[in-house]
Amino acid sequence: ALWALCLAGLAAALGSFSADQCSWRGSGLSQEAGSVEQLTLRCAEGSLEWLYPTGALRLRLAPRSPPATGAEDHSPRHVTACLKPAGTFRGAQLYLERDGELELLLPEAEAAPRPRVRCFTWLPRDKVALFLQATPQRDISRRIAAFRYELRGDWLTHPALPTEGACRPCNDTELLMAICTSDFVVRGSIRSVSNDAELQESVIGVSAVRVHRQKFPLFQAGGRPGWAAGSIRTPLRCGVRPGPGTFLFTGWLHFGEAWLSCAPRYKDFQRIYEGARRQRQNPCEFPVD
User: Any idea what the CATH number is for the domain that residue 257 is in?
Assistant: First the structure.
């Protein structure tokens, strides 16, 4: 009787959205085996945590677009979503539902202590949702199906998440926008490059002589006076190698880590920026030595 009371109390306490509708936390103890609970999350990033999965969840990601100004249309041409499952993801399988068809994104058997990020893109007219299906269990041991998500649409000024086209060098226009809109802009040199075959990532160790901007303390004071040190990630397929010289590194945060956007040699950036400034085509002011 006491066990049943504890379960009932847990079921009543769970099943709630965050105040801003960015995240959801709930329990399958209040669901019937064949039921499907419908959810909608409306932020550019957030999380889902499903304890004791039972039945299924159907999750629609519907980020709010920035308000329109005048005749300008902010409707995105496409939206990219990335999901990072928890290392303890158990009790369910995750599918992408697109126009009525299901595609398996994360089998329960693939859960790992160092989970791999899954990304996918859709058009606004597509009918897209995430479908979590509880897997049959023989016991009542604690299981949690949890993941974090990030959404990016082309209504945003910074580049998409690290999926297609991440290895292509930035053109002049993209570079000039990157220095104005990136989550971080640092000038420095490549200290090291390490490759992670499991996560399909390269980690670039950077020694920064100047941190022009960073939204979070990604680059912090290192061993040399006046220098900062940090790490930037890029897809392994890009084949980054260490090399001499000074670069301007720009990029954005992706699940709390720095990801590379543009990285021209600093002397090339100076030439591009000065040319744009002379023609009054620079989108923002930037300090150039």
Answer: 2.40.50.120
Is 71 inside any structural domain?
no
Low-confidence ranges of the chain (pLDDT < 70): 1-15, 17-19, 64-77, 110-112, 140, 153-166, 222-225
**Same domain (yes/no): 206, 240:** yes
C-alpha to C-alpha distance for 140 and 263, rounded to whole angstroms: 51
Reference 118, options 136, 109, 130, 102; nearest CA is 130
List strand residue ranges (DSSP E) for 163-216, in order: 184-196, 201-214
Q: How far apart are CA 178 and CA 157, in angstroms?
A: 8
Calculated CA dihedral for residues 99, 102, 105, 110, nearest 10 degrees: 170
Tens of pLDDT, residues 166-203: 678 899 999 999 999 899 999 999 999 999 988 889 99
Count of residues for the chain?
289
Number of domains in the chain: 2
- Which amino acid does the sequence have at 216? F
Buried residues in 129-146 as b, exposed as e (16+ CB within 10 A):
bbbbbbeeeeeeeebbbb
| Last residue within a domain, chosen from 125, 153, 181 | 153
CATH value at residue 131: 2.60.120
| Location of structure tokens 């041409």 | 77
Task: Say if residues 140 and 54 touch (Cβ distance below 8 Å).
Answer: no
Q: What CA–CA distance (Å, rounded) separates 32 from 14?
A: 15
Task: Tell me which residue range forms the domain holding 25.
Answer: 13-64+76-153
**Same domain? 60 vs 137:** yes
Kindly report, residue by residue over 1-43, the tens digit of the pLDDT.
444 434 444 444 446 766 678 999 999 888 887 899 999 998 8
